[in-house]
Specification:
heterodimer, A: alpha+beta, D-Maltodextrin-Binding Protein, domain 2, Dipeptide-binding Protein, domain 1, 3 domains, four-stranded antiparallel sheet, B: MetI-like fold, 13 helices, 0% strand, peptide transmembrane transporter activity (chain A), Peptide/nickel transport system substrate-binding protein (chain A)
Chain lengths: 533, 304
């Protein structure tokens, strides 16, 4: 073959390859759901330890709790692993009966021993989310007596006080209450750690999916659980890819390399809204954005200044521009969707009113203050917008940016002036937020419990009593009224400028249906996702 | 100097009557040589524009660089006559921010030059002059600094000191002196045994006096060339730190930080990240061109 013919042949080959590759469009496999999400917050897959957004969602799809609630109406509580439950006369003891015939992904049958073990294990390991259970008076010493197996399929849970029954039930729906496979976990126990080291990266549940693989900052792979008690998921696999940048997620979504993009920014949402291949779905989340004003600061401790600050945030504009589609204005500590949520938004930007209040506080020319700002794009953008409106009333606000670790450490040590942040409820009961925003049993520097009210050095013995009373109220209506009254007072006087409630937004390929966005992160479910072709 | 002799002739005189005339004459010759290099003049022009922009930022910038306009109407506007480079996500005028950002850039460059050059010169000339164990100790320390990539070392320092423009300057200065020390040492080694150094020593001059008065001036020209060539690197390092959130902090209009915040919008609003990028590119190029030109005229070896 002469040199020239070789060249022509090579050119032919090249163009053939080029032509062949053109019509091949990137597409995800029909039985696999691929999501792009920033998953670098995952530190463990153990239900006793998981307290992160991403891992909560993974566990929500792979484990089952004793009881669950309807994501559309959270007041509808039903049994998942439990068939039924009863509350004793004195309101302190719950008796659960386990559904017969259930089994774990491993094939082991589910008996009362498993939930009892799971709760005892979570309390004894005492990781970050353990307080959700220990607030009922459980601790490592007494948990073996308080949570007990009474028969093959029955168990009892005893509390130190007669709390509102829904409080316990909602707490059991949190990831820390998820039921693990006792036999499997204990077979991997080492040095009396209840299988903690093993379960960090492994799976022992009974949910619709099993966790096959987690590679940090890379991927989480879930596979259909063939032993699942409910309807089998249409998807054989669900994969989370770690893609931190919203713009990258958008490009992948447009190309069809992923099915769902999870971290889209406001601009990406607007741009994708015109794309016929993609639909935008959203759901309201429990997280709220707020500013905490440290009462150790001599200016911020003045009630007029606290109120003035609430008039110096341009809530509507931020929600319509920088955070468009990602937040709604919300100014009370209970997010919409919770029992007793207060949906009044009495504050709007009013510089004149704020100036009057500042003059009344002997600060007519304003003052200088710092705000610790986590360096994520959204928090920074909000902080910069607030900085501008504050300046209109003479308040010179300096932003001190830092990563999440730096700003949180300073906040927890009460060394900040103002902290801007996001708060996510730990479980679906109103007490979760009342406990942190409106309770401060001990304002001393060495207090045992350090809720948000403590972090901002807000000493509120009266309000603490009101919040404590609301936890014990059994009647749901009366309880809701107590929380509404509490929030109305809180809204006026508190050192918290509560601004927005989060909306979770997903960009989804149009052939993907059935993703459920629930109020808390472990409610997000892809169990029923289908792909139409 | 007689009245009939023009200033140019006076400067170019082969028989200067005073030290001052000789020095000025030397400077003038250098300038004439530099002026012949077109690219160097372009570089000088860019640097002058940067300096002027920094000095007159308040006059030049049409808007406030820190507080923006109406979020509802003035956000992410494309470049137009009202906003030459468009506006960013906080409705701030990008042109005004870039003009004010030139102050930060110039400050970083100037401070690093002021801090790093004397350190490098002092270490290098001392090591070269004394030799022996002084040389070994100082040069091994220099080697340690040179063993790390510069940006990585600067990152480590800023992470330890905490983010902020001052700490970024310190970190960059700490990481940029070793090449100057190396250079100064090499120069010193070639002159420390020269006859005129011996002559000074015989007259009773101490080591400090010899280094400061007779060695340092001879190392200056090559160090100046090196510093000018490094300026671009310093700007890029500062911008890199800003981009990573470790340099200047918001709302300061630091160019690297501006790119970082504009990155989110790059697909639909290209100008937010592109404009500061162009600014960094042009200024770095300007310093490089100027440095190249200076090397041609100041470095006697290259001249031949």
């Amino acid at each position: 073959m002469s040199y020239i013919t070789k060249q022509i042949a090579a050119a032919f080959m090249a163009s053939a390859i080029g032509l062949a590759s053109v019509p091949v469009q990137a597409q995800t496999p029909p039985d696999t759901l691929i999501q792009a999400w920033q998953i670098d917050d995952v530190i463990s897959l153990d239900p006793a330890e998981v307290f992160e957004f991403t891992a909560s969602e993974v566990l929500g799809n792979s484990y089952q709790p004793l009881v669950g609630y309807d994501v559309k109406d959270v007041s509808d509580i039903f049994g998942v692993i439990a068939e039924s439950w009863e509350v004793s006369e004195d309101g302190k003891t719950f008796t659960f009966t386990i559904k017969p015939g259930l089994q774990f992904a491993s094939g082991n049958p589910i008996t009362a021993a498993d939930p009892v073990f799971s709760l005892q294990r979570a309390v004894k390991l005492d990781k970050s989310p353990a307080f959700i259970l220990t607030q009922f008076g459980l601790n490592a010493e007494n948990v073996d007596q308080m949570v007990r197996q009474t028969g093959d399929m029955t168990m009892e849970l005893e509390m130190d006080k007669a709390y509102a029954p829904t409080l316990l039930l909602y707490c059991l729906t949190a990831t820390v209450g998820f039921v693990v496979d006792k036999e499997l976990v204990m077979s991997h126990e080492a040095d009396g750690d209840f299988g903690y080291e093993w379960l960090k990266t492994n799976y022992a549940g009974s949910g619709a999916f099993t966790i096959r693989d987690w590679r940090a900052n890379e991927v989480i792979v879930l596979e259909r659980n063939e032993n699942f008690s409910g309807d089998a998921s249409p998807m054989a696999r669900a994969i989370y890819r770690h893609i931190p940048e919203g713009s990258t997620q958008r490009l992948l979504l447009e190309k069809g390399d992923i099915d769902i993009a999870r971290n889209l920014g406001a601009e990406e949402i607007i741009a994708l809204a015109d794309n016929a291949d993609i639909k935008i779905e959203d759901g309201i989340k429990g997280s709220i954005y707020y500013m905490g004003l440290n009462q150790k600061n001599e200016n911020l401790m003045k009630p007029e200044v606290r109120e003035a600050m609430k008039y110096l945030v341009d809530y509507a504009t931020i929600a319509d521009t920088i955070m468009k589609g990602k937040v709604k204005v919300h100014q009370a500590f209970l997010p919409e969707g919770f029992l007793g949520a207060l949906n009044d938004n009495p504050y709007a930007l009013n510089v004149e009113k704020a100036k009057e209040l500042l003059a009344a506080a002997d600060l007519p020319d304003g003052f200088t203050v710092t705000m610790d700002t986590r360096n994520t794009p959204e928090i920074t953008a909000m902080a910069e917008a607030i900085q501008q409106t504050m300046a209109d009333a003479g308040i010179k606000m300096e932003l001190i940016p830092g990563d999440g670790q730096q700003t949180l450490t300073k906040y927890r040590a009460r060394n900040h002036d103002i902290y801007i942040g996001r708060w996510g409820p730990d479980y679906q009961d109103p007490h979760t937020n009342a406990d942190t925003f409106a309770r401060n049993p001990d304002n001393g520097d060495d207090a045992a419990s350090k809720p948000l009210a403590w972090r901002n050095a807000w000493d509120i013995p009266e309000m603490t009593k009101q919040a404590d009373a609301a936890v014990l109220e059994k009647d749901a209506k009366a309880r809701a009224d107590m929380y509404i009254a509490l929030q109305q007072e809180h809204q006026k006087v508190s050192p918290f400028v509560i601004m927005f409630q989060e909306i979770e937004v997903l960009g989804i390929r149009k052939d993907v249906n059935g993703f459920i966005i629930g109020p808390s992160f472990n409610d997000n479910s892809f169990r029923q996702v289908t792909k139409s072709e | 100097m007689s009245a009939g002799v023009s200033r140019r002739d006076w400067l170019l005189s082969e028989q200067p009557a005073s030290r001052r005339q000789a020095k000025l004459g030397q400077a003038y010759r250098t300038w004439v040589q530099l002026r012949r290099n077109k690219l160097a003049m372009v570089g000088l022009g860019i640097v002058l524009v940067l300096v002027l922009a920094a000095i007159f930022a308040d006059v030049i910038a049409p808007y406030d660089p820190l507080s923006g306009g109406d979020l509802r109407t003035a956000r992410l506007l494309p470049p137009s006559w009202a906003h030459l480079m468009g506006t960013d996500d906080q409705a701030r005028d990008i042109f005004s921010r870039i003009v004010h950002g030139s102050r930060l850039t110039l400050m970083v460059v100037a401070m690093v030059a002021v801090i790093a050059t004397p350190i490098g010169l002092a270490v290098g000339t001392t090591a070269g002059y004394f030799g022996g164990w002084v040389d070994t100790v100082l040069m091994r320390i220099t080697d340690i600094f040179l063993a790390f990539p510069r940006l990585i070392l600067a990152l480590a320092f800023v992470a330890a000191l905490g983010p902020g423009i001052e700490n970024a300057i310190i970190a960059i200065a700490i990481t940029s002196w070793p090449p100057y020390a190396r250079l100064a040492r090499a120069e010193t080694l070639t002159i420390r045994n020269a006859d005129y150094i011996d002559a000074i020593r015989l007259q009773g001059a101490g080591s400090g006096r010899i280094i400061w008065g007779h060695v340092v001036p001879l190392c200056m020209s090559s160090v100046i060339v090196r510093v000018t060539l490094d300026m671009a690197g310093i700007i890029l390092t500062a911008a890199g730190l800003g981009f990573l959130g470790l340099g200047a902090q918001p709302p300061q209009p630091e160019w690297g930080a501006m790119i970082a915040s504009g990155r989110r919008f790059i697909i639909d609003f290209w100008w937010v990240a592109t404009m500061p990028g162009i600014a960094i590119f042009v200024v770095s190029l300007g310093f490089n061109l100027l440095g190249d030109g200076l090397r041609d005229v100041l470095d006697p070896k290259a001249a031949q």
